[in-house]
Amino acid sequence: MRAAFSDTLVRLAKADPNVLLLTGDHGYALFDDFRRECPTQYINAGIAEQNMVGMAAGLARAGFRPFVYGLAAFIPVRVVEQIKLDVAHDQLPVIFIGDGAGFVYSHLGTSHQSTEDIACTRAIPNLAIYSPADRFEVTACMDKAYQSKSSVYLRMGKSDRGDVHSEVPQITEGTLLNVTPSLSSSKTDIAFIATGSLLKTAVGIASSHYPNASVWSVPSIKPINSQQVTTICQNHNAIVVFEEHSILGGLGSAITEIASEFSPRRILRIGVNDRFSHYCGTYEYLLKEHGLDRSTIELKIHDFLGAN
Amino acid sequence: MKPKSKAFDCKALRKTVLDMAYAGSTVHIGCAFSIIELLAVLYRNHLCYPNNDPLDEGRDYFILSKGHGVMAQYACLRELGWLKDEAFTGYFADGSDLKGLSDSRVSGLEVTSGSLGHGFSVGVGMALGAKLRGTDQKTYALVGDGEINEGPIWEGALFAAHHELKNFMVIVDENGFQAMGSTQEVLGLGSIQAKFESFGFEAITIDGHNEEAIDTAIKQLWASASVSPKALIAKTLKGKGVPFMENNNMWHYTRLDSETYAQALSAVAESEQ
């Protein structure tokens, strides 16, 4: 995923000299290629995220196409007001990259973990939110963000979960991607809707235990195609939403909001249950602490369906 | 650079501010009055808008980072013909465009301010953009002295100096007051000039109500051979021009009634400048 990110960024920057990369003193090694290929388009703004976002707004006003990079705990969460006022208010073409979202920094504790960033940004008008699940979705989201000439938050979570797609998917406005195309038109009992790192988990659980479950990836959390979500709800008796983010304000909330208005269904939201990490450990350990490891999720789904 | 003209007369600008403040029954009159001379000199002598177009790509960038003084800027934009008279008589009417704090959707306003410490950084970005493009555009960010309590100001100051943004000038409206009292009482600033100098700026302190001194200082800073960003520290009076408003922080919040409006108009008409 990170190679796809770097490759796409270099490609865009080489094709458009107005593309600038601003980093808040993060991205060691990640930007080696960029610095080598596009040295004059690389700006390390220092450990000063608020100023970096304001500057990105100024650069966008002057005709540049800034990508603003930081850890998701800082970009966007630390600078929500700068994103709202300086950038999104005028729909300036600034692309925010929040890296390491979720529990990637599992050993470092709460300051570097980010499970509230989608909730913090979803209510900001004019701001799109992308959350790619594999390297193909990263490329698609980067290209879509650049082409949109608008304000985008691109959330990058755990990057080594493996591919789900076999090629770069077409991302149209807010479309959910069916990763079980054989089930696309049939009505089944259950649909799994996932974003980011937990898509791979959803696919694994479906193939092992629920072969009739349709699985959907959501690379665009905002906008989201509410008609498509409604149709998915109409075609299934139960929905499970997966995200490495709080169950409050993220994808689970977005799906639930649409369903409650247009096609109410029982919906299980798999995510962070409104709590901070207590312990440190490996990424897998942290997922387990939050009940987001595969076996705990399987149990939750089993109980949820059993209560139907 | 624009030719000098008699436009942007400070008495006329203050009268416009009083008229709109009365029409809209608004606050922040003192915040606008401390920057009248600064804006008059900038718009009259320094800011370049090719074709009188507020959105021209080659324009100088003027950012009112202290959005609370926006009525003073509205008054200048009217002189430029960018705002219609109706916007002033109908200030704060339902469905009107001009807000009590600056909004970037109004042509001529570069940022949405009111939350403080934003415009300075946007200006640093614009100055960096002009430097990267190799244009001779200049960027000015006018901040309040209370506003420089905000951390991003100093993040941006570090960046501007490190990247030798000699095309960037911060203008500090040092009127000595912020919302809840004097800057000295709330969060003492010490020497603002020394602070910016220590960050690598070339700085001059002047009387912010002396138009000639303002003009001379701006020219002097731009004429410098130094690669440093510039800081103009303007010593001002909050509420300048109306004796009962001067240095009276009540006029951050107080609205005009018919009596104070008439008194203020008379005071402005009789004032020296």
Architecture overview:
The complex is a heterodimer of chains A (308) and B (273). Chain A is of the alpha/beta class and 308 residues long. Chain A has helices at residues 2-15, 32-37, 49-61, 80-87, 117-122, 135-148, 198-209, 226-235, 251-262, 283-289, 294-306; strands at 19-23, 42-44, 65-71, 95-99, 127-130, 151-155, 177-178, 190-194, 214-217, 220-222, 238-246, 266-272. Chain A has two domains: 2-155, 3-Layer(aba) Sandwich (Rossmann fold), CATH 3.40.50.970; 177-306, Rossmann fold (3-Layer(aba) Sandwich), CATH 3.40.50.920. The longest helix of chain A is centred in the first third of the chain and has 14 residues, at 2-15. Chain B has helices spanning 10-24, 29-33, 36-46, 70-79, 85-89, 119-133, 151-162, 183-187, 192-198, 211-223, 258-270, and strands at residues 61-64, 139-144, 168-174, 177-178, 181-182, 202-207, 230-235. In chain B, strand 6 (202-207), helix 10 (211-223) and strand 7 form a beta-alpha-beta unit. In chain B, helix 3 (36-46) crosses helix 10 (211-223). Chain B is globular and about 50 Å long. Chain B starts with 9 loop residues before the first helix and ends with a helix. Chains A and B meet through helix 3 and helix 4 of A and helix 6 and helix 7 of B.
